[in-house]
Design goal:
single chain, four-stranded antiparallel beta sheet, about 25% helix, binds zinc ion
């Protein structure tokens, strides 16, 4: 589940930022994308240039990157044991975190399961404690 969400997030991000969109199935192939607006369900349609398969990604609301302040808000919620919800659409977030005890570096990523908005935080765990107080 988490992997699917992250894959869709990266595809949507590539689309919105105008980067090449790598096909998840065909290594080395890229996909072309179109944003389709409809009355009920805006979405992105991606089509693989090699396999012609399509991937449809719902985009209402549209993906965006969370601001640093918002990401710090998520970290505070984690510290307090509060649930985190997407600022855009109030859906659940997939949260990934890793910390390296040797370097003291921690990394968090947050991805909305619905609109695929995302945010990341990198820093020293000591700095993280600062965010959380
Ligand atoms: Zn493909
Ligand atoms: Zn969302």
């Amino acid at each position: 589940m988490a992997n699917d969400v992250q894959q869709l997030r990266d595809l949507a991000r590539a689309f919105w930022t105008g980067q090449p969109i790598p096909c998840p199935k065909h290594h080395g192939a890229t996909m072309t994308g179109n944003f389709v607006q409809t009355t009920f369900a805006d979405h992105i349609v991606l089509t693989c240039q090699r396999g012609r398969e399509t991937i449809i990604i719902p985009q209402r609301p549209r993906q965006m990157e969370f601001h640093r302040q918002q990401v710090e808000g998520f970290l505070e919620n984690i510290e307090r044991g509060d649930a985190n919800l997407c600022y855009r659409c109030q859906s659940e977030l997939v949260i990934e975190s890793s910390a390296n005890p040797d370097t003291g570096l921690a990394e968090y990523s947050f991805t909305c399961v619905r609109c695929l908005s995302y945010g990341t935080w990198n820093g020293q765990t000591a700095e993280l404690a600062g965010v959380n107080t």
